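Issue 218. Parser rejects a valid record. Input:
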Amino acid sequence: MPALVASDLDRTLIYSAAALALTMPDARAPRLLCVEVHESKPLSYMTETAAQLLTDLGDAAVFVPTTTRTRKQYQRINLPGPAPEYAICANGGHLLVDGVSDLDWHARVTARLADQCAPLAEVQEHLLRAADPVWVRKHRVADDLFAYLVVERELLDEDWVKELAVWAENRGWTVSLQGRKIYAVPKPLTKSAALGEVARRTGAELTLAAGDSLLDADLLLAADQGWRPGHGELADTGFTAPSIRVLPERGVLAGERILREFLGAVRGA
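Output the parser choked on:
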């Protein structure tokens, strides 16, 4: 049976220039490969070594990119290695099969959201009304499934985020602060549910996962084995579990280490 490897992308496998965390002397910095261009500008990177490791992983296992990004945002990324047959977008709201959203899966997800939590319109209206324009730069809705704000982190009132989390909790939603984005996501909208569907379809008996944010916690717990880097929301909160390995690396070198760990686990299975 194939091994199934589901990994978050941003700040797990790929990194913006601001998130690279290149703390070594310039002459010893790793060579980088640009894997995403947006509006004609390079946006996301991985090390060249990580690119080769991902290529090897794609040949050895079913690799499933697993992201909170919308389908459009995901499709900007040009990952090395074989084109993934499956990809999980919009935090599990869309399951792509050969690049096309599975309409049956999406319908099942939207029905579950309508049944179990407050509507998106209510959450969006609250964000528009409650967020301070001093630190909000953009209001966005992702694939008609969840909402997020792009903010100036240095101006952001962290207590406001905590208050938002309490407000959202009472309505069946969760809040995650990742870099310059504050996400409000329905609780039933999970990466782990989509991972379970891919595992069912592929017959995988071994599932591996990696991620750095609160929205990855369910994914890591659902996998047979998970890894998290030394940065991000999960690191900040000390999140761990018996099946999760905490890595010391931060920034782009963490992405490289995660891919080494994936390959080692797949080859040792």
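Fixed in the parser; the record now loads. The two ends are 10 Å apart (CA to CA).
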